[in-house]
């Protein structure tokens, strides 16, 4: 079987599952095999009911003595079973799983895995995983069971695609294609590591923690290595491009623009600006990253540069990670720059035409816009990008290497400016973006106050709503964020935001509320954002789509529901939506996980306001052992690798350098070349 085979063509998957799998960005058989678990449930402790401790996760083997569905008064269905492994009986309970009684029957021999609890003084297990004994045929590797009695892989899921389903399919399909997996790593590098095939087997079905670690090491190396190599190769080619005429920078122009701003630049902004100006005066394309805390005023620095580029008769492309942000930047740039006669255009998935502030009668295409702001739709072939002098990318890590490489190759000889609020260690930045320079804006504009942050218990909810109403009557605005799982933006979760919206409308009948989520049409999003920014809306109920960059200094309260679902760094980003003006702002966190451990985690936000520190805390709390990658590096499109592993980063970078030095064209390594080509040319679905 061919690795590139579309999933829709495979028996046992078919059209409807293939459609769901697309939401996980899984299109081919290869994608499925490279869909790695993000953690494991450790059910490797096979024991007896008698010996098991309360609270322990264990696996038991025995016989089902009875099983039946019970209908409760509230019309819920509970499935109850008695299971006996010969040492002592234990009660099993499942909720909303009435079909179970068709799958397993009294007398069946089962292996079950779950946590031992005590309920009404009886030993019990809630929603145990189960597998019939005797019936399972080991496939991929020599494992006895798949869903119980071992380290059980847990995958990023989406509506209608469970980890159990994924596990079953991967177990069935992997052996059929194992021989087709080719290892692109050059021999001398590969020697030191687990072979690729074993790594892929072991990441899905490890026999023990050691196997899973070794698999992660190998696959994590690959991820970073290929990115390193791709970046360095791009950089080499970039260097060969014809050099730019140095920009002519008139101090008078610069001053008059800066004086037009409604505030004075902070000294950190001035410093970054100076570093950039020095770059622009050279006859070599700039490649610079501006990094700064949320709200530190990165965007305005970008606007100043775009203005100077315009003064040199060159265009600027500005790529934002989301449509919402593109609209907002469009708004900001238009306000700042149109007084200087600069035409700003927008180009996103839903607005495939460049529109601008140009007067009627002019042809509306890119040729009339001096600055074009958009999403990755900017990469589209149709847009003419002549005379590009500057490419600005906001929160670049959201794009991945593919898009960046594309963007770089299409523009002639532009300067390159990346802005990010994500604290990235220098080593990481070098790996991601190649040989770049960094400017750090480590100062917030004057008058900013720390956002007062509180983890609020449920019983105080009514009080916080009263608090909101009071603030709104003073003219302040509010965000209410409902959770949305990044990996699966399913309809169901969007509905959750809608449900919350309907509920809140009843709680605040006299206020103007609006709803914003990622699945809306572009034009709708745009008008909602405009209304909120111009204070026509009091409360904006939204999913975490506002996380990056949304800027409305008049918003002073953000309520985050289901805070347990977000990492600390992400919560910090969300919190950064308020506290952007001089008024005292507030962040109220609600969590449906009442454990003291989770409470302690969230409480860090009450006292910590440093993004880097919070990111590191995230790593410490969630990064060790069982949970890896997605939480930390999800934004970087990595499944395994984590940027916390600086040693590995350094190692991959050096290996990539050595390889390119010895064989700059990589002609000696056709597989590797093909792999890089894949990385560079794959375009994300819109
Ligand atoms: P970032 O992109 O770094 O999160 P923005 O550039 O969006 O921050 O700026 C945040 C807010 O602060 C904006 O409303 C902006 O107008 C304002 N701002 C930027 N620089 C300054 C400054 N030097 N003084 C006061 N306000 C500023
Ligand atoms: Mg910003």
What's this model, at a glance?
The longest helix has 32 residues, at 209-240. The model is unreliable at 138-142, 355-366, 485-494, 623-636 and 682-686 (pLDDT under 50). The protein is built from 22 helices and 21 strands.
Write the layout of secondary structure elements.
Blueprint: H1 14-22, H2 29-33, E1 39-42, E2 57-71, E3 77-84, E4 89-95, H3 100-103, E5 109-119, E6 122-126, E7 129-132, E8 151-154, H4 163-177, H5 187-190, H6 196-204, H7 209-240, H8 251-260, H9 267-280, E9 287-292, H10 298-311, E10 315-319, H11 323-337, E11 344-347, E12 371-374, E13 388-394, H12 400-410, E14 415-420, H13 426-433, E15 437-441, E16 452-455, H14 461-473, E17 477-481, H15 491-507, E18 513-516, H16 522-533, E19 539-542, E20 555-560, H17 568-575, E21 586-589, H18 596-607, H19 611-622, H20 630-633, H21 646-662, H22 670-681
The structure holds adenosine-5'-diphosphate and magnesium ion.
Overview of the molecule:
This protein has 686 residues and is α/β, with parallel strands linked by helices. Among the domains are: 41-154, OB fold (Dihydrolipoamide Acetyltransferase, E2P), CATH 2.40.50; 251-283 and 297-420, P-loop containing nucleotide triphosphate hydrolases (Rossmann fold, 3-Layer(aba) Sandwich), CATH 3.40.50; 452-608, P-loop containing nucleotide triphosphate hydrolases (Rossmann fold). Helices cover 37% and strands 18% of the residues. The protein is built from 22 helices and 21 strands. The protein has a 7-stranded parallel beta sheet with strand order 11-12-10-13-14-9-15, with helices on one face. Helix 16 links the parallel strand 18 (513-516) and strand 19 (539-542). Helix 7 crosses helix 21, helix 8 crosses helix 10 (298-311) and helix 11 packs across helix 16. Bound molecules: adenosine-5'-diphosphate and magnesium ion. Adenosine-5'-diphosphate binds at residues 263-266, 269, 292, 294-300, 421, 445, 549, 551, 553, 580.
